[in-house]
Request: fold
Amino acid sequence: MTDAATEAPRVSTVDPAEVERFSRIAAEWWDPHGKFRPLHRFNPVRLGYLKREICAHHGRDERTVRGLDGLSVLDIGCGGGLLCEPLARLGARVTGIDPSVTNIEVARLHAAGVGLDIDYRAVTAEDLGATGVTCDVVLAMEVVEHVADVPAFLAACAALVRPGGLIVLSTINRTAKAFALAIVGAEYVLRWLPRGTHSYDKLVRPEEIEGPLQGLGFTLLDRRGVVFDPLRGNWAESTDTDVNYMVVAARPS
Amino acid sequence: MTATPERHDIVIAGGGYVGLSLALALMQALPGLRLALVDTRPPQTDPAEAAKDLRASAIAAAARRMLASLGVWDEIAPVAQPILDMTVTDSRLDDRVRPVFLTFDARTDDGEPFAHMVPNAAMVGALARALEAAGGEVIAPDAVADFDADAAGTRVRLGSGRVLSASLLVAADGVRSRLRSLAGIRTVSWSYGQSGIVTTLKHELPHEGRAIEHFLPSGPFALLPLTGNRSSLVWSEKTEIAERLIADDFLFEAELMRRVGHGLGAVEVVGPRAAYPLGLTVARDFVRPRFALAGDAAHGIHPIAGQGLNMGFRDVAALAEVLAEAIRRGEDPGAIDVLERYQRWRRFDTVEMAAVTDVLNRLFSNDLAPVRALRDFGLGLVDRLPALKRRFIGEAAGGGGDLPKMLRGQAI
Reply:
């Protein structure tokens, strides 16, 4: 971040009962076999994709341990920090924002526990944008399908990208197949996600992300599907973007 | 006393071929990785000293490809003897003629020998020199005294008092792994009451690259070709008989001659002989948070199929690939969900191999007529079915299954 003036209001940390509650939620967020198991399973494929796209765009060696050294990365809707921590480990200066005060406390607690320095703030993209900060990479992973006004949210995200920087979004397509797999399958049949996590009419088609970004002067670099391989029990990149997909675009320098 | 721990990404305990090849693979795959290997002895990098150690191992084709991808095979090749041919017999000791039930042209489909006999010291020396060249940190002589893991990392205390902190501790400290017990991982094991006698023979006539395995009632008796007119001997006997044999020069040579036969001309024992108790030890789990077992620490198997070392290389190839991918993605290499990918990949394979080896040994260390009839029928059948034979060779060469990249000769 080019501006660290906006320190989010720290949640009261004096109440031990609250800290206790946050620790319990943090343990849930970070248990690979627990409630957030689907997200843990999903993490490797999106991390692999992010690393590759960011390294390719910023001219880094993908094989090195700290391939993102010195790059500023903003994760919008960071939750408990499942993406922020790996990116910080790769050397990026990471800021994670989330409107949920609980999520931010949980993420701070966990990062401190594993010794990672991550700037977590309980603010919205719009609020952060108002301070004028920009980053080399802006991420909004599994977020657009939960926002009220997609074009306004995309504009707020885009404003946070430094000229020459990158934006990556991932979400669920609005197709019959996505309804069958991501809502009926994941929420009702397999119970991977709580019912009501996603509602069909809030799902977003790729054009509804790419169009507004292009309108803001961004260049589209890639669109990639992510599919579940039931035999191996893991997620993999695919050309099939009917259900889960990711979009990468660059802001001109 | 609070020593400030030295921060590492990965600490490996054990400087045998498993620890060394894992360290080398990770250092080559991940520039900038902070890795330390702890061993009780400094690695033997002096070739003259190494030449005194006569022990040799069969390196399957897949493991050879891995050594090539690590850049050490060219150094090992001059002292490696390819196994070009394999003969298996089933006989009683005093059978005048040992019926040959199986002969193999011991090459895989693409003409590569299915295995090479490689002197252990040459292999370990080449790996140690390559690790040094790759900038790997070796802490020796020293040993891991104990360790404790939490969310932030594992604190590894060494016998010297040094304290290392790491994301992951890998135990490659052998079949009686002390670190495995410290981690609270239990094992399943049984012993055969047999010991394997190992030594080196020099013989008058050339072996032509042929491996010979006689399934005698007391257990397998195998001659594996080394460079020059030499062969490595692996001879299984009941433990008390094995101990008497190695204690007495005259008895040893007399019994040896009865078994070797005349195919190789005059035979002379040129190496020291030793007997190792044979058994099977498999860890119930291969991983814990921030802790992983590799090689014999995870599974010590009966050497009858010559697969112990090759399974160790499979562990290394799978673990290095899982860790390299995870670290490049920024994942915590000590996280249990990362380590479980390695366990899922290796454990089935290990249990399958241990079971097959166990059944083979029980089937062949037996003099009951019906058992002999059955196995001879089986071997004869295998000999008449070329496709099945090729599959045997393929499996013994380390192929089959979901093969890690390094065993296919690819970089990770």
